[in-house]
Amino acid sequence: MCTNSLGQPIGPIVKNWTEPKRPILMIMDGHYCKLEKLNPLRHTEDLFEANSLSKEDGIWAYLAYGPFDKLESYQEWVIDMAAKSDPLFYAIVDKKTDKALGVASYLRITPTAGSLEVGHINFSPALQKTVMATEAMYLMMRHVFVELGYRRYEWKCNALNEGSKIAAKRLGFTYEGTFRQAGVVKGRNRDTAWFSILDHEWPIMDQAFSRWLAKDNFTADSQQLTSLSDFVKEIRQEQAAQTTKSIT
């Protein structure tokens, strides 16, 4: 533990780190999907059509906006969001059909702390629980840690949103606690659950994602053979075995 001259505990020196740049909108290309700048002209109709398949507009339950009954009102929202730099919005596009099926963004971008959040995640029914959905999150995470050099990647959600909390943990985020009465959304109280993944945790997740996304991990009908969490366990066991071997 580090202490100062008064014997007070202080944080360790952060070595070999410089303040990262702010993310800029760029194409992130994966095997199954690509992420590109949210474009009102290119993406609005695809997204509106895909979102309209949500049962009783369930995808909007925990968001501060929506549902949108008309294409024109949704287009106004897309135009507004696409013009912002924080949040910085991406459309998630199916590479087979070239249609946008969901959105996600970087927000609370704080280069001085090396921290930012992924949020405003809204996956249409056609994107939910697919390989594309996981790959999209992986591409955004990899960009933050590998290409930009951030130290902390955050995920926050309504504490009542069990699906979002399960997704966060599956993707490697650690639950940090709940902020009580953190906001009022659509006239209702919101407690906010906080999650994060740190730069030193990324290498294991990077390997796990790469193994999970490999084509030989899926059957012809896109069923996974090994889960992401099992790959994480496997990699940790491999590392532990290598450490034991090097010691002996």
UniProtKB/TrEMBL annotation:
InterPro entries listed in its UniProt record: Acyl_CoA_acyltransferase, GNAT_dom, Ribosomal_N-acetyltransferase
Alphabetical list of PANTHER family matching this protein: FAMILY ACETYLTRANSFERASE, PUTATIVE (AFU_ORTHOLOGUE AFUA_7G00850)-RELATED, RIBOSOMAL-PROTEIN-SERINE ACETYLTRANSFERASE
Protein origin, superkingdom: Bacteria
Entry protein name: N-acetyltransferase domain-containing protein
Single Gene Ontology MF annotation: protein-N-terminal-alanine acetyltransferase activity
Span of domain N-acetyltransferase: 36-191
GO cellular component, as recorded: cytoplasm
Pfam families in the cross-refs: Acetyltransf_3
Coiled-coil spans in chain: none
